[in-house]
Amino acid sequence: MAKYRKKPVVIDAIQWTGKNLDECKLFTGDNFYGHVPDLREIIVKTSNGPYVVSANDYIIKGIQGEFYPCKPDIFAATYEAVTPSKPEEYAYKCSVCSRIIMSKKPQMVGELYCHRKPMIQKA
Ligand SMILES: [Zn+2]
């Protein structure tokens, strides 16, 4: 028997906190089905029909735009947050006055000076 591992697929998801109704409505769009305020539940259309989402459950948008619910403990075990990648910037600091210069490109040692000393690249 062969073994398989899930490919790392990035999905959109939102946690229904019981309070962020507008946010969840916006996220699920036409698939929003209803809200049961007394039970702090919302109902979302999934590929398996309407599904009750309890407070703290996650709503996941799959790669084909389909929605499915996920319990918070399963979500935490299965997914991790993706940090949006930002354009890389390099920071250089003067060891005397702590002035910081940001640069889009890495500088050679000795290209940036402050207080007659080469600025040190900050991690
Ligand atoms: Zn300086």
Short description:
This protein has 123 residues and is mainly beta. It has 2 helices and 11 strands.
Write up this protein.
The chain is mainly beta. The chain has two domains: 67 residues, no CATH class; 33 residues, no CATH class. Helix content is 12%, strand content 36%. The protein contains two helices and eleven strands. A three-stranded antiparallel sheet has the order 1-5-6. A three-stranded antiparallel sheet has the order 2-3-4, covered by helices on one side. A hairpin with a 2-residue loop joins strand 3 and strand 4. It is elongated. The two termini are 46 Å apart. The structure holds zinc ion.
Task: List key phrases describing it.
3-stranded antiparallel β-sheet; 123 residues; mainly beta; 11 strands; 2 helices; single chain; binds zinc ion; 2 domains
